[in-house]
Amino acid sequence: MANPIFNIFKPKVTEKFTLRDEEFEAVGKQLKREIDKVFGRSLAIRELDSGSDNSTEIELVNLGAPHYDVERFGVSFVASPRHADVIAITGAVTNNMAIAVKKTYDAAPAPKFVIAIGDDACGTGVFADSYATLGSADKILPVDLKIPGNPPSPTEILKGLLALMKIILEKGQ
Amino acid sequence: MASPEILTSLKGTECLKTAFPGNNSEIYAPVDEAEFPAIIDALANDGCVLISLFCAQNFEGRKGLALFYAFERRGCENILVLMRSAKGSKATSVAQKFPSACWFEREVSDGFGIEFEGAFDNRRLFLHEVYPEDFHPLLKETPNKKIKLREKIPAESEYQFKPMNGEGVYQIPVGPVHAGIIEPGHFRFSVIGEPISNLEVRMFYKHRGVEKLAEGKTPEECVKIAEAISGDETVANSVAFCMAVEKISGAKIPARADRLRAVLLEMERIYSLLGDVAGMAVDIAFASGASPFFILREEILRQNANLTGSRFMKGIVGIGGLKKDVPENELRNLSSYLKTFPKLFKEAHDSVLSSTISVDRFDRTGLVEKRLVSPLNLTGPIARASGVQIDNRKDRPYGAYQSFKPRVKIMDGGDVLSRFEVKSHEILESVNLIQKILKDLPEGPVSSNFKISDGFCLSTVEAPRGQNLHWVYIKDGVVDRYKVRTASFCNWQAIEHAVIGNIVPDFPLINKSMNLSYAGTDL
Predict the structure, then answer these.
(1) Which residue among B207, B312, B517 places its CB closest to the CB of A96?
(2) What is the DSSP letter of B378?
(3) pLDDT at position B1, please?
(4) pLDDT at position B3, please?
(5) Chain A interface, mutation test: which of B208, B268, B301, B351, most A Cβ atoms within 10 Å?
(6) Which of A10, B277, B370, B459 is 20 to 30 A from A158, alpha carbon to alpha carbon?
């Protein structure tokens, strides 16, 4: 019996963690308010890699890691496009991925939005002119917002999401 | 020339007489078609490993296609590069003797249209169905511009997975778009019940045309391309490329730049491997075990940003050294941060391994047998966790590693647990190395200026995932051919073997324990 009681009262590891990034927190809180308004509490994102150099993926994974933990703000990354409000596409869209990109987009229910994350997806990366890519995400999908960067930092991505909420509100959808 | 050990396999051949040393401890040996089979046999019998096979067109004024076979012999610093001409775009396959040649040859076939006779697999590799027939991007006559893709793919051009039939066998297709935030690739499982009977990996969805893109560009412009090969191996690939260019020109880079490059290389190893060990905990649904690793990784990424201005250290490595110096106060901050690191890391590591759940999932899962390491040219932590003593930093020391040697940990298990332990050790050892280097970091410039000469060179680095190999050929001041073979390219074949007999739910764990780069493979 002593052990469970000790476990309940012993200091919790999570309490020690005080690595807060003020700018990120501020943007996050603002984003949460906007998401509440536009999507009714939660925003579901399907990540779609169409040929990035994988650093953008690492930053997107970081958004869910302890320093950022964006689920607090109502943002979640979902396993299927069928559950998604937003398709977050990275990479310059390789020829080999083009069909899969189209199918993934088509599988997401309307209304849906597309954000291009990283220089490659925005069309300003090194592979824009290669024979092996279409050049940018907007060559194949209707991109609502571009978040440039090589790769953009987690805070920049979050700011991008905030901007997306504004765009959606303005469109009146 | 002196006679390095690797040349003993060529004893008594004509080819030995014409062999000449390259710019970076590699030895080139032009080989005659008549002698080729015997030499391949001799190399195979001597236990040499085929670490790369690539092609170049109109090499050094000789019209036509030339094939380069790079061989490594364990314990010998020199790499042997056999040069063979492919007359009439035909050549005999060596995949029966050297299984690692299978993907290499398919890659060359796609790029240059060479047909390999006697190959047991001649399906297309990086050119998927959407590319028209007879399109070979790496031929000089093919310009690097957008092409018309096939809209309708004829049935006979569709990719054929190797069939596996029998009562109760069914297939599970996974990908290219996966459920998590990871890169695209297709896995075709053949299963009976839950255990996996066969796995076929189909990659190259991310083929971006790296090698063709470099052609005709100045070496300075190509550094950016090298950085983009794989985001989490930015420094490893840019250093390998720059070293090749520096060796071609016979340039020496300042001691401070050499040491700082090693610091950045080790920082990259730390954050990359931290992601791997965190991922292993995530994939057994042990989120609280993974979080401390994620916290440490974020700290390291922030240190990277302080040191170089980029969380992935992009844009700092340049030809001749570094593009800018690293601020002295940031180096001091790094050193004091790294003092706190080992304790935090060990706590996180022990918390994962003190749980029976993780040991139960890690132990004897995803076995990579030692006998596979040489035939498939497995490299890096995967090879070291399967009992093979290889590390490019020790076997072929470059830059600061000539004076700073890492301690290499070898485990015999070959399973997920061994890879977890080897990677954990390497993280701590990298911290150690950085501290040692920072202790006596020389003052002075971080870049040297020199004129880039024409020539060719093979350079290798130990990236977080193993040996990355770069071959650069500069002609008339611009890059004429740039060949990259990352560790991931070879290590992908380990997964097909490692998963057999394991249950499907263990696949993500096995995959994460190797954590290979898709971008680095697909190029």
Answers:
(1) B207
(2) -
(3) 47
(4) 64
(5) B208
(6) B277
Asked if B236 and B461 touch (Cβ cutoff 8 Å), the reply is yes
Region of B499 please: left (phi>0), alpha (psi -120 to 50) or beta: alpha
Chain A, nearest residue to B290 by Cα: A65
Structural domains in chain A, sorted by start: 39-171 (3.40.50.12280)
Q: What is the pLDDT of residues B89-118, one digit of tens each?
A: 888 999 999 999 999 999 999 999 999 998
Closest A-chain CA to B517: A54
Identify whether B397 is preceded by a cis peptide bond (ω within 30 of 0). Answer: no
CATH 3.30.70.120 fits B210-522, yes or no: no
Which of B152, B187, B206 best probes binding to A when mutated, by most A CB atoms within 10 angstroms? B206
Quick one: three-class SS letters along A112-158? CEEEEECHHHHCCCCCCCCCCECCCHHHCCCCCEEECCCCCCHHHHH
Which parts of A44-109 fold into alpha helices (H)? Answer: 55-63, 98-107
Residues of A in contact with B204 (CB under 8 A): 96
| Complex ipTM tops 0.85 | yes
Query: What would the mean pLDDT of B299-316 be, rounded to a whole number?
Result: 93
Which residue in chain B is spatially nearest to A61 when comparing CA positions? B181
Domains B5-117 and B210-522 share a fold: no
For chain B, say whether A119 makes contact (Cβ under 8 Å): no
- Nearest residue in A to B289, CA atom: A13
> In this complex, do A130 and B209 lie within 8 Å of one another by their Cβ atoms?
yes
% of chain A beyond a pLDDT of 90: 59
- Residue % of chain B over a pLDDT of 90: 70
CB B363 within 8 A of CB B415: yes
- CA closest to A120 among chain B residues: B228
- Considering only the beta carbons, identify the residue of A65, A80, A130 that sits closest to B144: A130
Q: Is the pLDDT of residue A173 over 60?
A: no
Fold of B5-117: Beta Polymerase; domain 2 (3.30.460)
A-B C-beta contacts closer than 8 Å: 148
To the nearest whole Å, the CA of A172 is away from the closest chain B CA by: 30
Domain boundaries, chain B: 5-117, 210-522
pLDDT of amino acid B16: 82
Strands B26-30 and B79-86: parallel
pLDDT tens sequence across B44-72: 998 899 999 999 998 888 888 999 999 99
Residue B119 has pLDDT above 90, yes or no: no
Averaged pLDDT of chain B: 91
Q: What spatial distance separates the first Cα and last Cα of chain B, rounded to whole Å?
A: 36
**Are the beta carbons of A97 and B234 separated by less than 8 Å?**
no
E strands in A22-108: 43-49, 75-77, 86-90
